[in-house]
Structure formats: C-alpha cells, structure tokens
Write a structure and sequence with these properties.
heterodimer, A: about 140 residues, alpha+beta, OB fold (Dihydrolipoamide Acetyltransferase, E2P), 6-stranded antiparallel sheet, 3-stranded antiparallel sheet, about 25% helix, about 30% strand, B: about 375 residues, alpha/beta, TIM Barrel, two-stranded antiparallel sheet
C-alpha cells in the first residue's frame, strides 16, 4: 500500500475500466489491466478469458475478473478477434497481480478499428495529466492511500 | 504486502508465530488497508478477525477444516473457511486497528484460537495487545474449547473479552465425533465442548456466548431445529455457517447444502429466535428434512421482508448491531450469496424467495 502507480507510456488506457491496450510489432494489440484497475478489485483470484477466435467489441464484456471480495467483467478496450489468451495468467492470476504490464497480460487481439478506437483511449501526451487525475480520484474515493 | 505475495512466500513466514504474529482475514486486511481491494456492492467488513499462527498450523484434525493437521501444505499456505489469512506482526495489526478506530471506528475485533499447546496463553497475549492499542473496541474470542477450563475463561474475561464464540460446527454427538473427535482422529469431545459452552454462558451472561453451527456436514434439518430451540432456551446465540468444501481436506468432495435448504433453515431459525415459532410448527420427512411449516402468514412475511434471517450471523458492535459480517467468507463473490453481509435489498429478497421454494413446505 502507498505504492506508486506507473502508467507505461508505450500503451493506451481505457478511461473507465483501466484496461490497457499495447500495439505489438505484428499489428496486434495486447490487453491487460493497470494497477489502479487492480486496486479497484483487489488481487485477482480467478480470471476467465475468451477463447481464441472470439470476436470481441470495444466496451463490451469479454471475460470476467474475480478477486477475493469483488467481481468484475473484463471489458475489452478494443474491437477485434482474439488471437491468443494468456493461459498462464488464467491458471495463476498472481501473474497479473505481480506483473500487470508484463507477464500478466490477458489477451491478444487482431484489431478491427485500431485507428479509430485508439483515439477513444488515453495515451501519448495526455497520459500524464489523466493518470494524475485518476490517482487523485482513487484517493478521494478512499480506494488507495 | 499483498495476499498473493503472502501466499507465495511461505518460507519467508516460517518461524513467525503467535503471539508476535497473527493472521488476519482477507476482508479484515482490506478493511485495515493492509492489502488492496474493494468489496462487491460496496459493503464493508465490520469485525477484524484474527487467527493464531503456528508452524504446525492446528493440531486438531477436523475433517472439513482447511487448517486440519493432516491437510497437506505449509501452515501459512493453509486457508481457513476457504479464506486467505495473511500473516502480520501483532503489533502492526494492533496499530492499524487503533488507526481505523480513530479514523472511522472498528465494530469489533475477534481473536480466534487454533488447537495448539500455546493457544491459551497466546489468546491472552493477543487480546491484551489489541485491547491496549484500542481499549474501546469490543473484543470477542473464538475459542477452541478443548484448550480451556473455567479458570481460563475467567482470565479471558479479565483481559477485556466480552463475547465468547465456540466452534461447535457439528450439531449431534455422533456427527461431532466423526468430524472433530475420535472418529476423525481429532482431540475434541462433544461433552467437553458443552461443558465449556455452559461455563462461558454462566460467566459471560445471556447472548454473550455463541455457538458456530455449520449447515452441510451431514446433519438433518431436524437436528438443526432441535439445537436452535435448545440454544434459545439457554440464551446462547446460534451462528450459522454454510459448509464449503476445501481442497485437500477429508471432506473436499462432499457437496454443499443446496441453496433452498440453507434458505429454509435460515428462515426457520429466525422464526424460532425472533418470532417464537414453537417446535411443533415444523414437520419433517423421513430423511429429517423440513417438510411442513405451520406459521401465520404475517409472521413469515415479516421475517422474510426484514431480511435479517438471510444475513450473516455474527457478533454485535457497541450499539448492538451485527458487525461480524464476514463478506464473501463462505462463498466466492461471483457465486450466489449464502449469507448476506448487509441487509438484503428488494431485488435480493426476490432472489431469496425463488431460491427458498417456500411454497413446497408452507401455504399462507
């Protein structure tokens, strides 16, 4: 507790769900959850991810997240087809808790409308201000110290 | 420290034993902001539940318990009532309790014993540490009756504990023996548990002693009803728990009580305790299941609408309101509620009504 909340600048973030989307060199999008998103749930205990080949839509449920005392839907930050899911994280959600921006990625998506949908996410020069506002909002809500 | 970090580093926690260290329920750790997380439906955790910790875990062997001696795994890795209990220095927990008490109040703290040679002196030491840090916070002790005697109960009261909980769990002598006593190669005795329950009742007073009762260990509804009436007559509180099998225990493959059964038991318990339902108002089939409820419509409707019947049974705060609500303690937050850690709302009551299937046993 009392930790810092990094927002790596190589990816984009959904304002409401705190899911991140990170483009890969192959043109796909890795998806995961950021630290504030985890704070609002608690350490994940169960994770349900969509199967490869599933069509997912931006801002629509694609799976479920369950912590010790909270549940939530995994809301996809982008639309497209799931090309991979992190079965390691599904078996051991501690990967997400320990390394949400690395080994704790959740799924990989071949995007349908990345150019358009990335503009609805937060990234680049807007990231610093938005992330500070979010940290402040979480503190005001009493979700973090 | 996070829950996951705690569970992933059992070696790091070796040797960290009570009374210097104590385990704390996941919900209480969240409430004290020792770990991150929020509660589904924004409820809170009113009671800080603590558990003694030893390298050998618990030396009893209850067939359903995650702490059982013969359950495989490191002590600190073992869950208790399916909940992770991260380990912290007792002094830090006492400090956090005092901070929370100053910030927004703490409903109650409960110190739970395991069965261990040090369980009694360490119950005293941990209770003293909490009481010194936060003297206004009410204290409960959830005891292992087998570690106590009447003199020890007096000393427990003297250190500031005002409520005693006894984990009876199994509700008949035979079931108790098979799950906790000789039949389970365990140390517990039905007779001695009742001796301590009644000694505590004399010492602590009416409704200041509670028996934990588990639904789903193999008892019948008839067994449960009999005990509810007997406890009411002795002014001892009955706290219901819903059995939820833990992996690696002797009862890992045993099924949970069906939800309709639990709901009916919760309702009839409430009718007995708060509405004076007489023994003869409940009829049973050959299997001992509730088959008939003869109760006035107004009584039943009021009991259901009040919602209390379906809430977690637990110790009260300073104002007499239930505070030990153990959010999502006996089921996952993604599963249907078993006991509600808050008063059920209208939508919840509609769900409860469907789950209970009351029309099969009661006609208004």
């Amino acid at each position: 507790m009392g930790a810092s909340y990094p927002f790596p600048a190589d990816r984009w973030y959904d304002r409401s769900t705190h899911m991140w989307a990170c483009p890969t060199p192959e043109g796909e999008i890795l998806v995961g959850i950021d630290l504030l998103g985890l704070e609002s749930l608690g350490d994940l205990a169960y994770l349900t991810l969509p199967a490869e080949g599933t069509q997912v839509s931006r801002s629509r449920p694609a799976g479920s997240l369950e912590a010790a005392k909270m549940t939530g839907e995994l809301i996809s930050p982008v639309s497209g087809v799931v090309t991979a899911r992190n079965t390691g994280a599904e078996k051991n959600p501690a990967l997400v808790n320990h390394d949400p921006f690395g080994q704790g990625w959740m799924m990989k998506i071949r995007p349908d409308h990345w150019e358009k949908e990335s503009k609805e996410l937060v990234g680049g020069p807007d990231l610093g201000v938005w992330s500070q506002q979010e940290i402040l909002r979480y503190k005001e809500q009493g979700w973090i110290d | 420290m996070t829950l996951a970090q705690c569970a992933d580093n059992p070696a790091e926690d070796a040797g960290k034993q009570s009374p210097d260290y104590v385990r704390i329920s996941a919900a209480a750790a969240m409430e004290l902001r020792l770990v991150r997380g929020r509660f589904l439906r924004d409820c809170s955790c009113g009671c800080i539940n603590l558990l003694q910790n030893y390298d050998v875990s618990c030396t009893a062997n209850c067939t359903y318990c995650g702490l059982a001696r013969t359950r495989e795994g490191e002590s600190v890795d073992k869950s208790f009532i399916r909940v992770d209990w991260p380990l912290y220095p007792t002094s830090l927990v006492a400090e956090k309790v005092a901070e929370k008490e100053a910030r927004s109040g703490v409903g109650r703290v409960c110190v739970s014993q395991v069965h261990h040679p040090r369980a009694y002196p360490d119950l005293i030491a941990i209770s003293q540490a909490i009481h010194q840090a936060a003297p206004a916070v009410p204290l409960s002790a959830l005891v292992s009756a087998s570690t106590l005697n009447e003199e020890r109960l007096v000393e427990v009261k003297d250190v500031g504990v005002d409520i005693i909980g006894v984990g009876l769990d199994a509700v008949t002598p035979e079931l108790f023996s098979n799950t906790r006593g000789k039949g389970a190669k365990g140390p517990h005795s039905w007779e001695y548990h009742w001796k301590m329950i009644r000694a505590a009742r004399r010492l602590f007073g009416p409704m200041k002693v509670n028996c934990h009762i588990m639904v789903g260990l193999g008892e019948t509804d008839r067994d449960l009803m009999e005990l509810f009436h007997n406890l009411k007559e002795e002014q001892i509180a009955a706290y219901l728990f819903s059995f939820n099998p833990e992996e690696g225990t002797a009862m890992e493959a045993a099924p949970r009580a069906p939800l309709h059964r639990l709901r009916r038991v919760q309702l009839v318990k409430n009718l007995v305790e708060e509405h004076g339902l007489p023994r003869e108002a409940v009829g049973f089939n050959d299997a001992g299941e509730i088959a008939r409820l003869e109760a006035p419509e107004l009584m039943v409707r009021r009991a259901i609408a009040g919602g209390k019947a379906f809430m977690t049974d637990g110790c009260p705060d300073r104002q007499g309101e239930m505070t030990c609500n153990r959010p999502y303690g006996s089921y996952r937050p993604g599963e249907p509620f078993r006991d509600y850690p808050f008063r059920p709302e209208a939508d919840d009551l509609a769900v409860i009504g469907k789950e209970m299937r009351l029309e099969d046993i009661w006609r208004p």
